[in-house]
Amino acid sequence: MEENLNALSNGTTRLLRFLWSRRKQLILFSCAAFVVSAIVAFLMTPLYLSTAIVFPAATSSVSFSEQRNAKAAAMDFGEEEQAEQLVQILQSSRIRDKIIKEFNLFQHYRIDANATNKNHKINEAYNNHISFNRTRYGSIRIDVLDESPKLAAKMANKIVDLIDTVKNEMISERTLPAFKVNERKLIQMKKDRDAILKKLDSLADLGVIALDVRSNLFQAYVDSKNPKDREELKKKIDINMKYGAMYDGLEYMRNEKIVKIEDFNVSYEQAESDANTKFNHKFVVERAVEADKKDQPKRLIIILVATISAFIFAVFALLFWEKYKEFKSM
Q1: Beta carbons within 8 Å of 296's beta carbon, 6+ residues apart
Q2: 159 part of a folded domain
Q3: How far apart are CA 210 and CA 125, in angstroms?
Q4: CB–CB of 250/27 below 8 Å?
């Protein structure tokens, strides 16, 4: 054990002596790295950070049916599931493409719009400047870095505004076809009802009357003393005997259609609301403002890391060179 400690102490001593003997090279190399990193750090374009914070809404629907209750009230904040969905929407190409187009990011990020890998470059630049993260409180943080603090704030706030636009577009893609189906079905049901009403009107014009009134014809015929009235009543009785069953069947079908249409109106109104109403899907906690201080680069950190890294590299390089000379001289 003592021998190992002595060996370690001797090795450390030799290393320190070696570094001291090469102190000029190490200082020179470190100073050069310091100067170069300082020049590079101060030549780097400063980037300004603008941040917006939003909470997802718990629900985005209006219910017209007692059987279709929303999971949460429209005033409630969303939970983990809604937050994950919102982050996915923010990261989607739907929002990215709109931002790229509106702010002409190809030109802003100095990317050739005709290059073969233009999509890869613009997506990489977009992801390097714009990020979305969940906070520990369940909200979504939208960070935008840009050379212009004004543009960074505008982009962040535009992304906030696009949340509702994009999500409503996605909802419409699903709910609009369902509404069209409900609309066609309701129109057809009303057409069927109107056709039945038309047939009932035609039978009524012939003198056919409802079942509860029809029995009075026989009593009127029996009580009538006037031959002319009896003849008229006989004709009405004959017509009702001939078409009464048809009239009763049509009347039953009419009542059934009316009930079905009334019940179906709830489904139709729900589908219409889902397809046409533009909901607000977020709570804006904080809108982005122009930053008055740069966020990147951290020049002091860059210089320190570069200088320390250069010193360590120089040490290993000198040790390697020393060993190489020893092997070469053997």
Answers
A1: 44, 46, 47, 49, 145
A2: yes
A3: 78
A4: no
Question: Does 126 fall in a domain?
Answer: yes
**Nearest by Cα to 55 from 83, 92, 81, 89:** 83
Q: How many residues can be counted in the chain?
A: 330
51 in Cβ contact with 291 (< 8 Å)? no
- Cβ contact 18:316 at 8 Å: no
The set of residues, in sequence order, having a beta carbon less than 8 Å from that of 293 and lying 6+ positions away, is 48
Domain extent, residue 297, equals 46-175+279-315
Instruction: Report how many domains make up the chain.
Output: 2
Does residue 131 form part of some domain?
yes
Measured CA angle at 293 (ends 288, 299), to 5 deg = 130
pLDDT digits (tens, 9 = 90+) for 219-275: 676 667 677 767 776 777 778 788 888 888 888 898 999 899 888 888 888 888 777
CB proximity list for 294: less than 8 A, separation 6 or greater: 46, 47, 48
pLDDT digits (tens, 9 = 90+) for 162-204: 998 898 888 888 888 888 988 899 999 999 999 999 988 888 8
Token pair of 7 as six digits: 């060996």
